[in-house]
Design goal:
The complex is a heterodimer. By secondary structure, chain A is α/β, with parallel strands linked by helices. Chain A has one domain: 3-Layer(aba) Sandwich (Rossmann fold). In chain A, strand 1 and strand 2 form a beta hairpin. By secondary structure, chain B is mostly helical. The N and C termini of chain B lie far apart (53 Å). The chains are: A alpha/beta, B mainly alpha. At the A-B interface, helix 2 and helix 3 of A face helix 6 of B.
């Protein structure tokens, strides 16, 4: 499921954490300039894809190509140069708890540029204004709500004007208003900055509203890739189960085990009779 | 026979695991040292960590040093009184502190106060993905976070040990000279005559540098290697304190054997 126009191409990829296999011969791509949602059950490897793109983990086999460069073959300095073009929003923001909102957003600017303080101040306030939190610049992370923290983290992620934005579970734990704000920000930033966005989520409603394309992962490979409306109309039972949130189906409710009768020792007691 | 085999196998497994951990920890520390140029390029990071590890440990070091000096003075006076040489109490207090108690006790206190805090801070940064966020901003956490913490600890430790010893000597002076009435001149002159700069003070400083390096290395490694959960961080903090205490005591024995035995 790779197109030649994809900015990110993951091909023939095998990945496992120790004994636990996550991907087996994974082929998937993400379109340039689009917002793509990666969906799938818990443990399906959604976040791992973001880590593979950012070079935080390396596959046992296969290639992760980003903007024609093979990420998993990059050396330390190349990897850091690659990361300067990426902004990443972590699941719970990952704000530096000892720095206030302003300093959190200023952090990548101070570390990666030699801009004077006045320019950094202006840039930080611009980024905070974009996420609607210019007025919260002096607050500490502990004083922010979950939604506000996520927006500060978003302002920090776009501080260096990345060409690729990665979002890890951006809607988790947010109230409906914050979810709508975050979804709207993902869409607006992608369109106004002309970047590529990839986000991982379980939230069907929010993601289908924001995404141009959806990739559905299951059992270590891609089950479906297409526009949200295509997935809604898919006849694939796995896609239907996921989209409609059905309890049982191709993904079974019960974890594989011995028969219920055997576990309850009914067979043994019947034999004794 | 089977039980013996099982025990032998477990022992072998534990030995291999321990050697593996030692190898991983050594690689980690070499990597930290290799990325340490940042503490010269940006000394403000080092100063902040010295404040965190050193200045914030001052209260416990000063109070403990004072009490250790008071006890040493009291015990020393009671013992020396039997031999009619109470004037030597200053020498006893100073040598005990400068050679042994200063470096060792301040290292143990440093491990409990600053070492545990360093491990907890790095562990929590890992748990809350702050280190991952830094990596994704193309900022190397080894250089930006770990190296300044490591060197902050290494440099703070000898200063804390010196303050501990100084406070201990003041404590000894207060109890023996001011309270008990030992001659002040004898207290200071005998101390001055018996404490050698190279043999006693410099060796004490070397000890505290070695202890500071060991405790700081253990603290940063345990934090970075901690399992990113609440339980994982709490276990890492415990390991820091226990391992540091054992390392300090073992290193003290080795260093003492080299420094203070033989001709002197």
């Amino acid at each position: 499921m790779i197109k030649t126009t994809d900015l990110i191409q993951i091909s023939s990829l095998n990945f496992s954490y120790g004994e636990s296999e996550i991907f087996q011969n994974l082929d998937v791509g993400f379109s340039a300039g689009k917002v793509t949602a990666i969906m799938g059950g818990s443990g399906s490897g959604k976040t791992t894809i973001l880590k593979l793109i950012g070079g935080q983990v390396r596959p046992q086999k296969g290639r992760v190509i980003c903007d024609s460069k093979v990420v998993n073959h990059m050396r330390h300095n190349e990897l850091f140069a690659h990361r300067k073009t990426i902004g990443m929003l972590f699941q719970f923001g990952a704000l530096f708890t000892d720095l206030n909102v302003f300093e959190n957003v200023a952090f990548p600017l101070r570390e990666q540029t030699a801009l004077p303080d006045a320019a950094i101040k202006d840039l930080v306030l611009l980024k905070l204004h974009a996420v609607g939190l210019r007025g919260a610049s002096r607050l500490m992370p502990a004083e922010l709500s979950g939604g506000m923290a996520r927006r500060v983290a978003l302002a920090r992620a776009i501080a260096l004007d990345p060409s690729l934005m990665l979002y890890d579970e951006p809607f988790t734990g947010l109230d409906p208003i914050s979810t709508a704000i975050t979804g709207n920000l993902i869409r607006t930033l992608n369109d106004t900055l002309g970047i590529t966005s990839v986000f991982v989520t379980h939230d069907i409603k929010a993601s289908f509203k924001v995404a141009d394309e959806v990739v559905l992962l299951s059992r270590g490979c891609v089950t479906a890739r297409g526009k949200p409306e295509d997935l809604m109309e898919s006849t694939d039972p796995l896609v239907q189960q996921f989209v409609n949130g059905e309890v049982d189906g191709p993904v079974p409710f019960h974890v594989r085990s011995r028969s219920y009768r055997e576990d309850l020792a009914l067979v043994q007691s019947e034999n004794l009779k | 026979m089977t039980l013996f085999k099982t025990m032998l196998s477990k022992l072998g497994r534990k030995t291999i695991d321990s050697l593996w951990t030692l190898g991983v920890a050594s690689t980690f520390i070499f990597r930290v040292i290799a990325r340490s140029s940042i503490v010269i390029r940006r000394p403000n990071l080092l100063v902040a960590e010295m404040h965190f590890a050193g200045v914030l440990s001052l209260v416990i070091i000063i109070v403990s040093g004072l009490f250790v000096g008071l006890v040493l003075g009291l015990q020393g006076y009671e013992t020396l009184k039997r031999y009619g040489s109470t004037g030597a109490v200053g020498t006893l207090v100073a040598l005990s502190l400068v050679r042994e108690l200063g470096p060792v006790v301040s290292a143990l206190l440093f491990a409990s106060r600053a070492g545990s805090a360093i491990t907890a801070e790095i562990g929590i940064m890992k748990t809350t993905e702050q280190l991952s966020a830094m990596e994704m901003m193309a900022v190397d956490p080894y250089a930006r976070v770990i190296a300044p913490m490591f060197w902050g600890g290494v440099l703070s430790m000898p200063l804390l040990a010196a303050i501990f010893s100084a406070m201990g000597i003041i404590g000894g002076y207060l109890i023996t000279v001011v309270v008990i009435g030992v001659d002040s001149g004898a207290f200071w002159s005998q101390m001055q005559a018996s404490v050698d700069f190279h043999h006693d003070i410099l060796n004490g400083v070397i000890k505290s540098v070695v202890f500071g390096t060991a405790v700081s290395a253990i603290s940063v490694y345990e934090g970075y290697a901690s399992v990113p959960t609440a339980e994982g961080v709490s276990k890492a903090v415990t390991r820091t304190v226990v391992t540091s205490a054992l390392a300090v005591l073992a290193l003290d024995f080795v260093l003492t054997a080299f420094m203070f035995t033989g001709a002197h």
